[in-house]
Amino acid sequence: MREDTKSLQLADVISALDTTLTTLKATGIDLTYRVGGTSAALLQGVHLPVGDIDVLVAQRTDVDAVATALSPFPCLHATSWLPQGAQYFARYEVNGVHLEISTVEQETESDALECIDSGPWHHYVQITCGQHPVPVVRLELRLATELLRDRPDRYKPLLDHLATHGFDADLLNRAMVARDIPLARQRSIHNRLMSSR
């Protein structure tokens, strides 16, 4: 999250997504996408710092189509290739919220990474957001990302939520292995979550 911004609230995320999806529908765009990142966690009831909305699409032409549809909104980063992240990327401001649209063009053998290859396309849940059903990446994949980044202000709320509401232990284990989380840390996370069952 950018240091100069306050954390988004659930209403901010819902408003920006609802406006975006309504705009896409009005322009005839039927998009396959996933919402990932901290905003996906917030939509699933996890209270953690959120700086923007991350929308993953499968193809560069999808980024271009969304950018065209969102042209009435402020463009903060025009569509371009970001080689360091292997992403085709654009950023817009919708209802005061930064909304990022991108591909992630990496391959992996794992199906348990949050935004790479098949992970987000297979492991998601539908959340109603305004008038739209929104596919959001499962929390197990987000937790592994936050453990990798070692951001306790993000991973502790995720752990608390999963401990209370349940989780897919196999998926989480695969996600932690795919992120190369040290084995001792994996055991600690497993013990923390299993003790809550």
Task: Summarize, please.
The protein is of the alpha+beta class. The protein has helices spanning 10-26, 37-43, 60-69, 119-122, 139-149, 152-165, 169-178, 183-194; strands at 33-36, 53-57, 75-82, 87-94, 97-102, 124-129, 132-137. The protein has a domain at 10-138: Beta Polymerase, domain 2 (2-Layer Sandwich), CATH 3.30.460.
Give short descriptive properties of this protein.
197 residues; Beta Polymerase, domain 2; alpha+beta; five-stranded mixed beta sheet; 8 helices
Q: How many strands appear in the DSSP assignment?
A: 7
Distance between the termini: 32 Å
CATH domain fold name of one domain: Beta Polymerase, domain 2
Mean pLDDT, nearest integer? 94
Radius of gyration: 17 Å
Counting H and I runs of at least 4 residues, what is the number of helices? 8
Account of the 3D structure:
A 5-stranded mixed sheet has the order 1-2-5-4-3. The model has no long low-confidence stretch (mean pLDDT 94). It has 197 residues and is of the alpha+beta class. Helix content is 43%, strand content 22%.
